[in-house]
Amino acid sequence: MTNSHGDHLETEQKYDADDGFALPGFTGPGFGGLTGRRPARKRYYLSATYFDTEDLDLHRNRVTLRRRVGGTDEGWHLKLPVRKNTRQELHAPLDEGGPGSIPARLAAQVEDFTKAQRLRPIAILDTERTVVTLPGPKGKPAVEIADDRVTATRFGEGEEEPVTWREIEVEVLSDGPEASGLVEAVGQELRKAGARPSASESKLGRLLQS
């Protein structure tokens, strides 16, 4: 459920894919009844700056804070762990903060983790995203598939070389067993096409582990 701030629970599965991976067509009765036609694909360019303390206290607690431009939900995003594959996502508009200023509402949510330490930019991730949205039985959006080509740079004392990878995110857009069944069908199709379940639960986590 989304509130007036745009906050919502985010439930998604992530997969790794090689450069030559071909995103399946997702047609047929198992994919929202899109028999004989391919769902539309939209493309976006996203650039996100991630923030944390010097000791990466947010990351150690599975929390991410970013300021992202581009796409349909640009702004500040704070993600807090709830359970496996699910996080609480809190939003704030772009103009509520700047490169060195975190929106107060989001900063207050992480005070227990930061313990008065300064939050600073730690990385920038640029993403070329292709999005496919699959409908449920009633025609409403049920699952979103994002094919991401990521270029990530970690900020440090020296010059950090960019790291690149490709990943697929499958996000639930609606409640109910229909969406869960659709997510499973999408996962099976992705694995058949050569994608692999990701070992990282976030893009930033993958970068920091590289």
Structure characterization notes:
The mean pLDDT is 87. Helix content is 18%, strand content 41%. It has 210 residues and is an alpha+beta fold. It has one domain: Hypothetical Protein Pfu-838710-001 (Beta Barrel). It contains five helices and nine strands, in the order E-E-H-E-E-E-H-H-E-E-E-H-E-H. Strands 1-5-4-3-2-6-7-8 form an eight-stranded antiparallel β-barrel. The chain is globular and about 55 Å long.
Key words describing this protein structure:
Hypothetical Protein Pfu-838710-001; 41% strand; 18% helix; 210 residues; 5 helices; alpha+beta
How do the strands and helices of this protein lay out in sequence?
Blueprint: E1 8-17, E2 41-52, H1 57-60, E3 64-69, E4 75-83, E5 86-92, H2 104-109, H3 111-114, E6 120-135, E7 141-154, E8 163-172, H4 177-192, E9 196-197, H5 203-209
Oligomer: single chain
Treating each run of at least 4 consecutive H or I residues as one helix, how many helices? 5
Overall morphology: globular
Question: Any low-confidence stretches, pLDDT <50, length ≥5?
Answer: none
Order of helices and strands: EEHEEEHHEEEHEH
Number of strands: 9
Beta content: 35-45%
Tell me the helix content.
10-25%
Please identify, by name, the CATH architecture: Beta Barrel
Mean pLDDT: 87
| N→C terminal distance | 34 Å
Record the strand order, biggest sheet: 1-5-4-3-2-6-7-8
User: Which fold name is given in CATH as the topology?
Assistant: Hypothetical Protein Pfu-838710-001
Question: What is the number of domains?
Answer: 1
